[in-house]
Amino acid sequence: MTASPATESPAIRRGGVIWRGGGTLVFLAILAVFPLVLQNPTVTTIAVDTLIFAAAAVAWNIFSGYSGYISLGQAVFFGAGAYTVGIAARAWHLNGDAVFALLPLAAAVAAGLAVPLGLISLRVRRHTFVVITIAFFFIAQLTATNLSVTGGSSGILAPSPNWDSATFNNPFYYTALALLVLAIAASWLIRGSRFGLQLRAIRDDEDRAAGLGVRAMPVKLAAFVISAIVIGMAGGLWFYFIGQAIPQFAFDPLFDLSIVVMAFFGGLGTIAGPVLGALVIEPVQQWLTLQYTNEYLSEILLGVLFLAVILGLPRGVIPTGAEKISWLRTRLRSRREAAVQPDAGSPAPPGSPPREPREAREAREAREAQGAREARP
Amino acid sequence: MTTMLRAASVSKAFGGVQALQDCTITVEEGTIAGLIGPNGSGKTTLFNIMTGYERVDGGDVYLGDRNITNLQPQRVFALGIGRTFQLTRIFPRLTVMENMLVAAQHTGHGRTRNPLARAGGRADRQRATDLLEFAGIARHADALADTLSYGQRKLLELSYVLVADPAIVLLDEPAGGVNPSLIHHIADRIRELNAAGKTFLIVEHNMEFVMGLCGHVTVLDYGTVVATGPPEIIRSDPRVLDAYLGIAEEDDDAPGQ
């Protein structure tokens, strides 16, 4: 017998922490020096855009990934942040670095919107919830088109700072990086916390969680608002960077689709997944748009990728990859043991529960899921 | 003896179906009470009403002296009623330990309630580990609950309900779909917990299990209480035999009965 999992898992966990912590530091160091090394404005423009989307995808995952409530309406908060910065900068004649100081205001407006929208939509679940968030999205877009304060269909222009053109993108880049770090820190803190555990319990079985004392509504609403705060700031930053907001781009259905694909691609409910998804998908999308100027190409590819991920990698790259690695490790270890004790064969890893055949297990799960649905009040 | 849990004249209809009709049941503190009846007689509906998952049409539910009628499930749990479900409901994508910690967060022994604190303090984890050892599934603590077998899931559900130390535990078919040796294991655990002072109310179809475990049995049929009393009286009550046991024995010609 090898060491029982109970004694070896802390060591593995500690090793994991060192790897992960070190990896995160290296990753952040690369991101920090990136615009100093690669100064081509085309590259840094794509980089800023990617960081903004990464922050938004991480924020989307904090709510939808952890709670299982798939929102297709987070663009409401993105657009609200954009218009907040636009209207406030115009009203107070702000320009240059001062515009960045409006991001907390964008966060506050997004949070203020998220509370009533959450109280309405979080009363329902699954598909009904998704449909309601899409409805919010269209209401927001129509409102922006029809109000005079948002500039109607011609939108609103951002102040244009007179920064040196060679390093023009740098303030945007580092603000976006700070936002991404904030989002990742929030995601990490929440995932390991009792709040995060309650969210994930709600994802798995909300009624059962309530029966164990979880107050579902405040928990869901808090996650929804936190997600909106980060996405609102991402929207405000994006607006200042792009230079204008018009209703169909500030409230863009492709924004929602993109961040959802990013999170699914990398791994729903993981910390690194949405970051990985954004780092892979957004540059490709931007590059295709710049290369071929035909926006539809990147949209078609996004759709194809979405299908491929859902069909081929439903749990995302990171969970599937992690599983493959641990499977390989177990195999290597058991092979080494088999070499030491030739007569031991290849024992199943200790502590692993008895395996049922895949078909039997799927059939049982389907049965149980069916039963659970029927039993639900 | 003092009354722990009481449903008084509870009624509940689903559309035209009268699931419960003027139903009264009492569970005394420190006992193991049984609730039996044919399929569709209203046992699970009564559980759902007592734990806040369904609202009553009429009648009241009391925990001790406190009226808990129509309170939300999380309130009912916080007041000290834990329950399991007929079809075991665990959190499949959480680890076994995380499953335990979901309920552990609400015991609130005067601890700070910082929601961003790491899930599961040292005391919570220790208590969770003790209970998993008691149930016999501690070696799976770090496994995803999804990988547990059906019987292990039953044990996990029983364990995490106990984490918060509820005053009374409602078990909905704890022996359903479980192999005979595990049934004995579960019955022994319930007996030990009861000896330590825990009160139980058990819905179960396995007669041997109920009659061997419970000191007091209530029989439901068509949403009304047909009989109530100690198992030996219930066994010979003609109304019960008519409503339930007669049919059950015809269906159940297992050897040794």
Molecular structure report:
- The complex is a heterodimer of chains A (377) and B (257).
- Chain A has helices at residues 5-37, 41-67, 75-92, 103-121, 126-146, 170-192, 194-210, 216-242, 247-250, 253-266, 273-292, 295-312, 317-340, 358-375, and strands spanning 156-157, 244-245.
- By secondary structure, chain A is mainly alpha-helical.
- Chain A has a domain at 37-279: ABC transporter involved in vitamin B12 uptake, BtuC (Orthogonal Bundle), CATH 1.10.3470.
- Chain A has a two-stranded antiparallel ribbon with strand order 1-2.
- Chain B has helices spanning 43-50, 73-79, 96-104, 122-135, 150-163, 180-195, 207-213, 231-236, 238-251, and strands at residues 3-14, 17-28, 32-36, 58-63, 66-67, 81-83, 168-172, 199-203, 216-221, 224-229.
- In chain B, the strands form 2 sheets. Chain B has a 6-stranded mixed sheet with strand order 6-7-8-3-9-10, with helices on both faces. A 4-stranded antiparallel sheet of chain B has the order 2-1-4-5, covered by helices on one side.
- The longest helix of chain B is centred in the C-terminal third of the chain and has 16 residues, at 180-195.
- The chains are: A mainly alpha (377), B alpha/beta (257).
- The A-B interface holds A 4-6, 9, 189-190, 192-198, 200-201, 203-205, 207-216, 222, 269, 351-354, 356, 364, 368, 371-372, 375, 377 and B 44, 48, 51-54, 72-74, 76-78, 83, 85-94, 98, 101-103, 105-106, 115-120, 138-143, 147-150, 152, 160-161, 164.
Helix content of chain B: 25-40%
Low-confidence stretches of chain A: 1-9, 343-356, 371-377
Number of helices of chain B: 9
Mean pLDDT of chain B: 82
Main sheet strand line-up of chain B: 6-7-8-3-9-10
**Roughly how many Å apart are the termini of chain B?**
34 Å
From the N-terminal CA to the C-terminal CA of chain A, the straight-line distance is 47 Å
